[in-house]
Amino acid sequence: MMTAHRSVAVALVVAVLAQPSVAQTEGTTETPDVGESPAWIIAIHGGAGSTTRDELSTTAEEQLLADLTAALEAGAALLDAGAPGPAAIEAALKILEDSPHFNAGRGAALDEHGQARHDASIMQGHDLKAGGVAGSSRIKNPIAAARAVMEKTQNVMLHGEGADWFAAEAGLEMADPLYFVTEKRREALLEQRAKNRDAETVANPYNEATYGTVGAVVLDRDGNVSAGTTTGGRTNKRYGRIGDTPIIGAGTYASNTSCAVSATGHGEYFMRWTVARDICARVEFAGESLEEASRQLIIDTLLPQGGTGGVVALDPSGNVVFVMTTANLKRGVMSSSTPARVAVYSDEPIK
Ligand code: ASP
């Protein structure tokens, strides 16, 4: 089943690449091997970015790879023990939120007022339940709050002070807003403030300082898929700006009838093209493979419009794909039959 799926995808990709279009040859698609019929899979990303190999120190790269590996292993331990996908997603993404090296939780990008305001969401594929928080500023782990919204309320999204209030009431760990602020992000804010926000977006749509998000997709032992994403958004974002990450169907989507997707990139584009839902709809209604559907959205549709970034996606048959149109997409994958493998740059495979 999986092999047949792959060969259709390969044929379609060859057909797409054969057409003379610059946009279609830019961007990378990676379908990591997760073994034959694995009992569970976790695939994560740590944000799309423009930093190339020459611009990032080996130490910095090693820190990213170590954090990604720790996140995979934390999620995998739960999946192996039979936990549901959202529990594994929360465990994995909490590690990346707690690390100052990713744009989520501590070390999140700062808005124009110098504050970290977090967006996060989670969705489970067997009953389409979903939860999210937008613009929270005191929840230590926004992904945990997104899961609590999904599991403890009848709502899908809470925002701002309401989200903070709910998380405190739910007994989640809270933090002083200063806990999230790192020196690196302060410097990035000062740099961005010196530029014109809108001109910068047009001239340099995927500046490392302005983006970077973390996300995960999971297939659990019950055969259910789920997805989660958490971010600080973009540096110097307008006060009150909400990106694609907390929006179900834009930055996150999961359904057992198609696939699970977590996105990272220029949020406004992912919102306007409802990327995560569209990928799954193509799989479900157009019969496209996961790889072809993801490629269609990220490389063939968004990129020509100027929207860059990437996704990690997974389907109930166990196919996994990373698609990226940026120099790097911090990422990793692990399954019941394959060890944790990670990568930073788009021109290298996970290993
Ligand atoms: N998509 C996020 C946003 O626009 C940023 C990112 O993924 O890097 O808020």
The string of secondary-structure elements, in order, is HHEEHHEEHEHHHEEEEHHHEEEE
What ligands does this structure carry? aspartic acid
Tell me the β content.
15-25%
Radius of gyration, in Å, reads 18 Å
User: What is the helical fraction, as a range of percent?
Assistant: 25-40%
SS-derived structural category:
alpha+beta
Largest sheet data: 8 strands, mixed
Under CATH, the topology of the domain at 7-105 and 119-128 and 210-345 is which?
A: Glutamine Phosphoribosylpyrophosphate, subunit 1, domain 1
- The beta-strand count equals 13
CATH architecture type of the domain at 7-105 and 119-128 and 210-345: 4-Layer Sandwich
**Dominant shape:** globular
Low-confidence stretches are 1-25, 202-206
Mean pLDDT: 90
CATH class of the domain at 7-105 and 119-128 and 210-345: Alpha Beta
Instruction: Going across the biggest sheet, name each strand in turn.
Output: 5-4-3-7-6-2-12-13
First-to-last CA distance? 25 Å
CATH superfamily name of the domain at 7-105 and 119-128 and 210-345? (Glycosyl)asparaginase
Figure out the total of helices. 11
